[in-house]
Write a structure and sequence with these properties.
Elements: H1 2-10, E1 12-15, E2 18-21, E3 25-26, E4 32-37, E5 40-43, H2 44-52, E6 61-65, E7 78-82, H3 83-93, H4 99-110, H5 117-125, H6 130-137, H7 141-149
Helix pairs in contact: 6-7
Amino acid sequence: MTDLIERIRAKCVEEGDCWIWQGGAGGLQRDQPRMHFNKKKRQVRRVVFTELLGGKLGKGHGVSTKCGTLLCVCPEHMKKTTTSERSKKAGERGDYSTPLRRARVALGKRANSRLTPEAVREIRASDEAQPVIAARWGICRSTVSQIKLGKTWREYRAEPFAGLMR
């Protein structure tokens, strides 16, 4: 147990009462502290809660912090929560609906796309018929239509109000 605490503390920086995780992170928001434990990559808070505090986590339960700091792994700040409680808090913080999140999702989808941003600009500027454009780029006609209408391949800019009026 003390070895595990030392491993965790070695990757943390103390800020007030919190132990701020400086090691690897992952998850949807890239803010879930993660570590290798028993030959698996696991959430540090779950390891702390189950191994150090002896807590039990059933299906639909997880661990969050009382302090509200996303990278805190201090055992004294751990509390057992349900998935719906964590989702509600994330929604209140705006984690599910920010323009930045929408841009990240779009970038992830575009990584495996046949099109490039330059090709999309060409498609938008083209006056040719949609079937002709679709055949040239090897995509569906409906995809061409969605691009021209601005419903897919939106341009995300670093402006605070970009994309709000679509």
